[in-house]
User: Which sequence fits this backbone?
């Protein structure tokens, strides 16, 4: 493994072991469940909005290391961001895990999400990585049904 792959691996393992914002949010404005039947990942994403801004975001549930680490990183990246910025991050992440995003020079802007670029080499894992993002997006759009990656 190259040094950069090792770093990625380390970040994903760390977020899987100690997920950030991993809690049920009392008094959430919106909460929605996301399910990836291919792998069995199932999370609930909670959002507290302040106008257009995501004031707080958290998640609960269970899933594989990739899905859990991705949800954890997502909460870090989107908290305090506007709905519009979160949508941009979603689009970037969507392209990233499909290997369609040029991350050169954008490392700062994209932050820790770049650790998931390696997922594009494992098509079965793309849905694990994107699950929490799809779920957050639905919560922001105020959908109420369960989100499925299928
Ligand atoms: Zn999974």
Assistant:
């Amino acid at each position: 493994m190259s040094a950069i792959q090792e770093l990625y691996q380390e970040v994903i393992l760390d977020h899987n072991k100690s997920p950030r914002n991993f809690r049920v949010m009392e008094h959430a404005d919106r909460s929605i469940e996301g399910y990836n039947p291919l792998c069995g990942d199932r999370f609930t994403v909670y959002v507290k909005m302040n106008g257009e801004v995501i004031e707080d975001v958290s998640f609960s549930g269970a899933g594989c290391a990739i899905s859990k680490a991705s949800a954890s990183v997502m909460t870090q990246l989107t908290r305090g961001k506007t709905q519009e910025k979160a949508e941009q991050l979603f689009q970037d992440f969507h392209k990233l895990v499909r290997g369609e995003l040029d991350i050169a020079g954008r490392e700062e802007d994209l932050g820790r999400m770049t650790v998931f670029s390696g997922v594009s080499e494992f098509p079965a894992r793309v849905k694990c990585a994107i699950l929490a993002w799809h779920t957050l997006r639905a919560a922001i759009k105020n959908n109420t049904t369960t989100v499925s990656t299928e």
Summary: The chain has a mean pLDDT of 92. Helices lie at 3-17, 65-78, 83-96, 107-110, 123-140. The pocket of zinc ion is lined by residues 36, 39, 41, 63-64, 66-67, 128 (CB under 6 Å). The radius of gyration is 14 Å.
